[in-house]
Amino acid sequence: MGKIDNNKQMKRESLLDSAFSLFINNGFSKTSISDIVNNAGVAKGTFYLYFKDKYDIRNHLIAHKASQVFQAAYTDLLRHPDIRDFEEQVLFITDNILDQFAANHSLVTLISKHLSWGFFKNSLTFAPFADTPAIYTIYESLLSHAAYTYRSPELMFYMILELVSGTSYNAILYQQPVPLEELKPELYTAICGIFKQFRIRKKRKAAENAGEDPGSLFS
Hints:
Layout: H1 3-26, H2 33-40, H3 44-50, H4 54-78, H5 86-103, H6 105-114, H7 117-124, H8 135-144, E1 148-150, H9 153-174, H10 180-198, E2 199-202, H11 206-210
Antiparallel strand pairs: 1-2
Helix pairs in contact: 1-2, 1-4, 4-5, 4-7, 5-9, 5-10, 9-10
């Protein structure tokens, strides 16, 4: 990345960080574009080089944060080459993401408050950098090495996302109906049930596929 591109990226990141802080502390409705640019230390005209309006930066922010969380979980998975099974990989990533959310309640509040499947689907195809694959690209890569073939893999992903987000929100923020660590075993059993529901057949080369490197996207 050249110096000019790097400066542009830094300004965009500064605006996103500023918006995140203000949306969390003051609320979306009480935050203006002027507040965002003043907090970021950039000119107001700079804002419009990257975003159309306040709603646009909010949407980009959610996609950006969702991608950051998922990328961190996937990077952690790459440190565990012993986890070769697709379903175990998804459970590992899920567990990692929940731990990230448990350590940062602001992320849970921001993402859950504005989340819808239509919007989040756009987040799944959002690539923060040219050399960084999108969330759904990673999912498809892991899926291609799975021991089983699955019908409607996008619907399967949707059901897992809805299950995880719907059951973990209150457990993370309010320890209701049970704390997160108590919820996890039941949640993961339910996810395994979704996998089983969508399985079609076992692949002929299952053992070989299961041995593929999950980090092939970055090789």
